């Protein structure tokens, strides 16, 4: 297999051809939304500026995809104001990408959407890794990664300047993922994406929005900065809680309270252990990331390191989930 990500310059040219939007790309004031009169979230304010690269995070089911529906205009908010800026051209990468006319080939689809002849179609598709006979695959038979690449390839021809993506790296193979990341890095417009993918967030985002029931929190910086901030907030809460406990500990007598106290001790111990494990895992992850970014690895080794990285990240996420679940 050829090295999939060497054609950076061409991608860059493609991405630069879209006209820029105004400075204000999207603003939301006091937005609430939900289904069947049941509210998912409220008081959402958002102020997105040209070239912002924002990761939208929040627990499953909180309404992130719903928020996208509001932006795309396929759903109305229950309350509040939403405004898209001047000359904003949205490109939307859905979570489950579907193509009309499933029997069409990649080439026929691309030709139908762009009107280009076969030659230009093939060379544009090749930049997104559809090489040789790949262009004769039916769109319905494409893998997750291929669907993402095809959509991206098309969007880059459509002069978009505001890219909205819903969990773009789910079910995406490594070459497609690398292609996606590189394309995003070179994209000349505004990006808003939903993701749980810590690696993607760190590589792309310079701002993080966290959606919760009562609004949107805005964090400057990448995922590491976001997590550090969350941790320090949690730490402060834990300190408060333990000061509180100290006071109560002065005069506890009955066995119920004793039992609770022991459970609390175990919880705190477990948290400390988890924090230690997380720190160790982080060192391992950055070692592998260092290998990935720092050197000229052969393709096979690169793939191996990615596998290791993915395994480490998922171990990390498991630890993190456990850690978060012990906070309340
Ligand atoms: N069309 C719909 N009708 C009713 N409920 C929906 C609809 N779409 C999503 N929901 C519900 O709204 C909640 C938020 O969904 P979603 O926006 O997809 O969350 P997220 O993307 O943050 O995981 C979920 O509980 C989901 O089941
Ligand atoms: Mg969703």
Report a brief summary of the structure.
This protein is of the alpha/beta class and 328 residues long. The chain has helices at 8-16, 64-72, 106-114, 118-127, 144-155, 174-186, 198-204, 223-249, 255-294, 299-325, and strands at 24-35, 38-49, 53-57, 79-84, 90-93, 162-166, 190-194, 207-212, 215-220.
Features:
328 residues; alpha/beta; Rossmann fold; 2 domains; six-stranded mixed sheet; three-stranded antiparallel sheet; 10 helices; 50% helix; 19% strand; disordered N terminus; binds adenosine-5'-diphosphate; binds magnesium ion
Explain what the structure shows.
The protein has 2 domains: 24-221, Rossmann fold; 234-325. With 328 residues, the protein is of the alpha/beta class. The chain is globular and about 85 Å long. It has helices at 8-16, 64-72, 106-114, 118-127, 144-155, 174-186, 198-204, 223-249, 255-294, 299-325, and strands at residues 24-35, 38-49, 53-57, 79-84, 90-93, 162-166, 190-194, 207-212, 215-220. The chain binds adenosine-5'-diphosphate and magnesium ion. Magnesium ion (MG) binds at residues 64-65, 166.
